[in-house]
Design goal:
Layout: H1 14-22, H2 55-69, E1 101-109, E2 116-124, E3 137-142, H3 145-148, H4 156-166, E4 172-177, E5 181-182, E6 200-201, H5 203-208, H6 213-220, H7 222-227, E7 239-244, H8 246-257, E8 264-268, H9 281-287, E9 294-300, E10 305-306, E11 309-310, H10 311-324, E12 328-334, H11 341-345, H12 347-354, H13 358-368
Parallel strand pairs: 3-4, 3-7, 7-8, 8-9, 9-12
Antiparallel strand pairs: 1-2, 2-4, 5-6, 10-11
Helix pairs in contact: 4-12, 9-10
Length: 383
């Protein structure tokens, strides 16, 4: 990992400051400079006090102090501005690619999160055939409003259309679901990041809590309802769950608690920090029984650093823990901040990695579900 650039100008270089001060008459000594900013030199740092400082020496020291304490502006090419992440052709509409259908729905829950209302979007690919014997794969996205837009960061309907058409991922039905709000109504298409005045969001409870509640909410609610209309794989190897920020840790928690429901996880700038205890996951991964999961992580060096934790370091800890236990995993790191720009730009390749062996998986499932597939052969052979 590249270290921050500290030396902006000569006056902002700690080594330069020290050499300049050593060349001056004592007793002026430098205060140790901070690692990430310019620091003034204080004549009062001399333990002998101010009495021994002659006026000329004091004036010289004050001039140097002013020079060192002056703001250190960043040159334009050395700023900490987030890099630009460009979308590729797989995130754009192609004329020869059939379009799937996206529909908007609402779900009023009384089972796991009573009295919550939320919107969700259902994507059904053009290649889905309700009369076919084969089932569709499933992928569930948290904070669905940020994944569904065709001009947003992620553009899931566009990317799915292109990758399914190319054969890089299976025919997959996507559920893009928002967190619950405690309200009686939501204006269609208006549930996003802002929460209206007088409305309470249940997002942190649902997403940041380390329990099986959210997976149970999905299982008993929307997924059960979908299963009555669509043929969807029940095998977790053909089911994925994804999210951004707290939605990222939510996706991991759902699969961690219920690997029988989801076998694949995609986290964008996941909040594996101490909002509700998520910083414990690296230790749990290292010590707990291994789950049959495939995990994709995307993280940015310029992500949040606040009272809950350091997002970039938290994702590094997750990657190290997954590597220690030999999980099938991948971390894509960049210089992005706490947003979906990087994750959205790389979504097509991220999905290719997540679903890279889907054809083999379908064949394995078919063989495993054949009559007599579970019968063991006679280990002794013929006598």
């Amino acid at each position: 990992m590249n270290r921050p650039h500290l030396g902006r100008f000569a006056a902002c270089n700690p080594a330069f400051n020290a050499r300049m001060i050593r060349s001056m008459p004592r007793p002026i000594t430098p205060t140790p400079p901070a690692a990430t900013r310019c620091h003034p030199v204080h004549p009062a740092g001399h333990r002998g006090g101010h009495a021994a400082i002659r006026p000329a020496m004091l004036a010289t020291g004050l001039l140097l102090a002013l020079a060192v304490a002056a703001p250190c502006p960043l040159p334009a090419d050395e700023s900490n501005a987030e890099p630009v992440f460009e979308h590729g052709p797989d995130s754009m509409r192609q004329d020869d690619v059939p379009r799937g259908e996206v529909s908007r729905h609402q779900w009023h829950d009384q089972e796991v999160y009573p009295d919550t209302l939320r919107e969700y979007y259902l994507y059904v690919p053009a290649a889905y055939d309700p009369t076919a014997e084969s089932s569709a794969a499933l992928m569930v996205f948290q904070d669905g409003h940020t994944y569904v837009g065709e001009d947003g960061d992620f553009r899931v309907p566009v990317v799915f259309d292109n990758l399914i058409h190319q054969g890089d991922m299976p025919v997959t039905i996507a559920v893009m679901i928002n967190p619950g709000w405690f309200t009686d109504q939501i204006e269609p298409g208006r549930q996003g990041w802002p929460v209206p005045d007088g409305v309470r969001s249940n997002r942190s409870v649902e997403y940041d809590t380390l329990s099986g509640d959210y997976a149970r909410f999905l299982e008993l609610g929307i997924l059960d309802q979908l299963g009555k209309t669509y043929r969807i794989h029940s095998d977790p190897r053909m089911r994925a769950i994804a999210g951004i920020s707290s939605g990222g840790i939510c996706a991991f928690t759902a699969a961690w608690e219920r690997p029988d429901l989801f076998g694949k996880v995609m986290s964008h700038i996941g909040s594996f920090v101490n909002i509700r205890g998520g910083d414990t996951y690296p230790g749990l991964i290292r010590k707990a029984d291994e789950r049959p999961l495939r995990v994709f992580l995307q993280a940015g060096r310029n992500d949040l650093d606040n009272q809950h934790g350091h997002w970039w370091l938290a994702n590094l800890q997750m990657e190290k823990a997954l590597a220690f236990r030999d999980y099938d995993h991948k971390l894509v790191a960049g210089d992005g901040a706490h947003n979906g720009r990087h994750g959205g730009a790389i979504l097509p390749d991220s999905l290719r990695w997540l679903w890279r062996d889907w054809r083999e998986t379908v064949e394995d499932i078919a063989q495993e579900t054949q009559p007599g597939a579970g019968d063991a052969a006679d280990p002794a052979g013929e006598s």
